[in-house]
């Protein structure tokens, strides 16, 4: 079979490659900075582990390939302005917003969106980087270098953050994983739990929303939709046209994980609904060193990305899936030596496990 090239060689590309191994598929993550001439064949397939990329020798070669799946969708979702416009056009709920233009003022932001307004860079933001709070109480102004490069969003007083990961095949068939409950600390994902029975009543709504987006974009592969849950309403926070951190638990908790499903979809292979095995939880490893003693903890699975550890940087994750909730609680107790803010993340998991 032809090769599947992945634009980007980070952890998502590595996990796509890992998931494709049992299927006998050859997945080739590409470092976007490489100067190599890529031996792309006419029947190869190209996908991406990131929605935004600079023009480099490597990305130019990949983008020129006729089988780059979703190529035209990436720029539309990578720019928060056009992403928000898509959400509005499909009449899906999202935080009220406006584009930050040259003549935008904080006064207008407070008038239209309220006393706390979150500016987000249109491009390139992740893990809460590229955000800037405007607070009326502090008379915050819009810095000049945000004008033309950001959107302004109403601060949402949400009950909690949830996400849904879906996959769509070339023929339009769609499957979804159960809603995931997510904990963000300072804008970065620390922990996830899924499935949760108490969120089940929102599943049809979440699937209809993400399904509508994927259909409208004629999207093929895995897409994630991050939402704020406000009572029984879901407001879309943002979309990710790729495999997503809040779907990492599927590696432990689903018969077919998000990575394999993405590969199946872009390769035009059959999709099938994944069996959900049991209760899953995921802990992101952020700015902490690997501790191979974790391997002695029953039921815990380690993914270490072999990246240099820096404060605030995602360098791995831990998954666990069990039908025995006591076992999951025991895992959380055994992780107690992790530094702050893991006390908060572990307590949150412990509290939200059924
Ligand atoms: P990611 O790593 O998920 O791609 P990001 O940098 O693209 O993150 P967002 O997901 O837009 O940024 O925001 C990060 C977090 O900031 C959210 O998960 C949420 O906790 C908080 N946040 C974002 N938008 C709002 C809002 N309008 N009101 C309140 N909190 C918000
Ligand atoms: Mg994002
Ligand atoms: Mg996000």
Number of domains: 3
Given the helix and strand composition, which structural class is it? Answer: alpha+beta
- How many separate helices? 10
> Which molecules other than protein and nucleic acid are bound?
adenosine-5'-triphosphate, magnesium ion
What's the level 1 CATH class of the largest domain? Alpha Beta
Using only C-alpha atoms, the radius of gyration works out to: 20 Å
Instruction: Fill in the CATH topology of the largest domain.
Output: D-amino Acid Aminotransferase, Chain A, domain 1
Plain-language structure description:
- The chain is built from ten helices and 16 strands.
- The chain is of the alpha+beta class and 354 residues long.
- The chain folds into three domains: 65 residues, 3-Layer(aba) Sandwich (Rossmann fold); 59 residues, Dna Ligase, domain 1 (2-Layer Sandwich), CATH 3.30.1490.20; 193 residues, 2-Layer Sandwich (D-amino Acid Aminotransferase, Chain A, domain 1).
- Strands 8, 9, 10, 11, 12, 13, 14, 15 and 16 form a nine-stranded antiparallel sheet that branches. It has a four-stranded antiparallel sheet with strand order 4-7-5-6, sandwiched between helices. Strands 2-1-3 form a three-stranded parallel sheet, sandwiched between helices.
- Strand 1, helix 1 and strand 2 form a beta-alpha-beta unit.
- It is globular and about 55 Å long.
- The termini are far apart.
- It binds adenosine-5'-triphosphate and magnesium ion (2 copies).
- The site of one magnesium ion has 2 residues, from loops.
């Amino acid at each position: 079979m032809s090769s599947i090239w992945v634009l980007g060689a980070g952890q998502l590309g590595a996990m796509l490659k890992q998931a494709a191994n049992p299927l006998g598929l050859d997945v080739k993550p590409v470092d976007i900075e490489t100067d190599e001439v890529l031996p792309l064949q006419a029947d190869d397939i190209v996908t991406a582990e990131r929605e935004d990329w600079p023009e480099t020798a490597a990305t130019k070669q990949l983008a020129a390939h006729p089988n780059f799946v979703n190529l035209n969708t990436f720029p539309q979702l990578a720019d928060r302005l056009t992403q928000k416009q898509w959400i509005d056009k499909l009449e899906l709920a999202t935080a009220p917003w406006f584009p930050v233009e040259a003549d935008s003022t904080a006064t207008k932001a407070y008038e239209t969106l309220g006393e706390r307004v979150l500016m987000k860079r249109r491009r390139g933001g992740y893990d809460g980087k590229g955000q800037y709070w405007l607070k009326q109480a502090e008379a915050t102004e819009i810095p000049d270098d945000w004008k033309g490069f950001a959107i302004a969003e109403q601060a949402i007083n949400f009950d909690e953050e949830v996400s849904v990961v879906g996959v769509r095949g070339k023929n339009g068939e769609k499957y979804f994983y159960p809603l995931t409950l997510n904990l963000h600390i300072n804008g970065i994902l620390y922990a996830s739990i899924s499935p949760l029975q108490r969120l089940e009543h929102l599943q049809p709504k979440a699937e209809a929303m993400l399904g509508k987006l994927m259909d409208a974009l004629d999207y093929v592969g895995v897409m994630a939709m991050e939402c704020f849950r406000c009572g029984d309403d879901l407001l879309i926070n943002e979309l990710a046209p790729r495999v997503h951190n809040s779907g990492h638990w599927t590696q432990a908790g689903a018969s077919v994980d998000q990575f394999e499903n993405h590969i199946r979809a872009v390769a035009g292979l059959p999709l099938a609904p994944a069996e959900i095995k049991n209760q899953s939880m995921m802990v992101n490893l952020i700015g902490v060193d690997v501790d191979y003693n974790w391997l002695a903890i029953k039921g815990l699975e380690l993914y270490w990305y072999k990246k240099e550890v820096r404060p605030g940087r995602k360098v791995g994750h831990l998954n666990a899936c069990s039908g025995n909730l006591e076992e999951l609680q025991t895992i959380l107790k055994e992780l107690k030596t992790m530094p702050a803010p893991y006390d908060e993340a572990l307590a949150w998991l412990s509290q939200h496990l059924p």
